[in-house]
């Protein structure tokens, strides 16, 4: 069993409008845009990162906004709900805030003894706020008070037709089963970061998901550095997984592989961080381009949708 993985690093989803996505995550949810860059493989598409003040691993939600992308079709073989941690007692205020912002499908629930507020993002992606005694320092620069602001990820759920193979993989990655509730199994990384919970939801009769706007593209797990990442990569290769070479994503190094349930996993390093090319006070303000796409700056300035703020 691996010991290098500490929990979530980031979650990357697809969107249909960069400006609408940016407004929702910065204005409505109060996160900080910590990086405005482009998709390395499709530089005419933004890659937007939202998180705490510095984009600490375990806080960062990222998006590829493909203009006018068709909506995804929910189903098995994907991440279902991405959940954020908020202070205990803050859900009534969040419900009022989200309702006032026109957010759809608000639902107050409880799961594994925790109070939750579930809702749809701008492209129908399922999100949740979970009340916890999370001690991480939140970003309050968007105007939300500290007794309400998001701390980072709480968990992510995965919809699967058969949980067996994915559960075995997660156990190999250092997760341990904590509890079962109905058709959902909860796994945690003991001693991990505060974003160390994965829920596996078994839906044997559900159809396969089709990716589109609102779908999670991949989910990334955190390791401290490149040395730990190479140890994880070799262990996955030895177990029979097809793992990519290490890829430099400017703000972290990444490896990718597909799970038995069809979900794309990434293992990302905590280094070098989002302040490697911007001062912390100005993170996410300017368009940053990877060196291989810098020659496209003028053209991309014409193609990319303007984003306020």
TrEMBL record:
MF terms from GO for this chain are: dioxygenase activity
A Pfam family this chain is assigned to: Glyoxalase
**Annotated source species:** Brevirhabdus pacifica
InterPro entries, sorted: Extradiol_RC_dioxygenase, Glyas_Bleomycin-R_OHBP_Dase, Glyas_Fos-R_dOase_dom, VOC_core
Tell me which domain of life the UniProt entry assigns to the organism this sequence originates from. Bacteria
- Protein's name according to its UniProt entry: Dioxygenase
- The answer to whether the entry has keyword Lipid biosynthesis is no
Keywords tagged on the record: Dioxygenase, Oxidoreductase
Q: Which Gene3D superfamilies does UniProt cross-reference here? A: 2,3-Dihydroxybiphenyl 1,2-Dioxygenase, domain 1
Provide the organism lineage as a comma list: Bacteria, Pseudomonadati, Pseudomonadota, Alphaproteobacteria, Rhodobacterales
